[in-house]
Specification:
globular; 2 strands; about 130 residues
Length: about 130
């Protein structure tokens, strides 16, 4: 067999590889966006529930986040919220969730960062809101 034929086939395959990788990347990007959007929606429900002192709803929404994407960086603090025994504990874990969610939201440009210097015993904390006016 002529050695040029396998080399030619290999060259064709490798020259197509970058475009195949880009196609796969686009699909992965769309999947990432969908997961991020879903996780941020769950985050918003948790935030609203904690604002209303509704631990049961916060725990349920956080558990839903974990169920949706257990491999997300948001899953561990969401799981901790879902297992919290009281509002103070849930709010401590919510700060951890916010610390992970804020970079995702900045990338997705779907939510706004709010800050309260009095939160966390005067240490201050950032969290996400759906609108800058909330």
């Amino acid at each position: 067999m002529n050695p040029i034929i396998p080399l030619s086939i290999a060259a064709l395959v490798f020259s197509a590889a970058p475009s195949l990788a880009e196609e796969g990347h686009d699909h992965h990007g769309a999947t990432h966006e969908a997961h991020a959007e879903h996780m941020l929606e769950g985050y918003a429900v948790v935030a609203e529930a904690l604002y209303k002192d509704d631990l049961a709803t916060a725990k349920k929404a956080a558990a839903g986040m974990v169920k949706h994407d257990k491999d997300s960086a948001m899953a561990a603090p969401a799981k901790a919220i879902s297992e919290s025994n009281d509002l103070a504990e849930a709010r401590t874990h919510f700060k951890e969730l916010s610390d992970v969610a804020i970079p995702v939201a900045k990338e997705e440009k779907t939510m706004h960062v709010a800050h309260c210097p009095m939160a966390m015993g005067g240490k201050g904390a950032d969290w996400l809101q759906k609108s800058a006016d909330e």
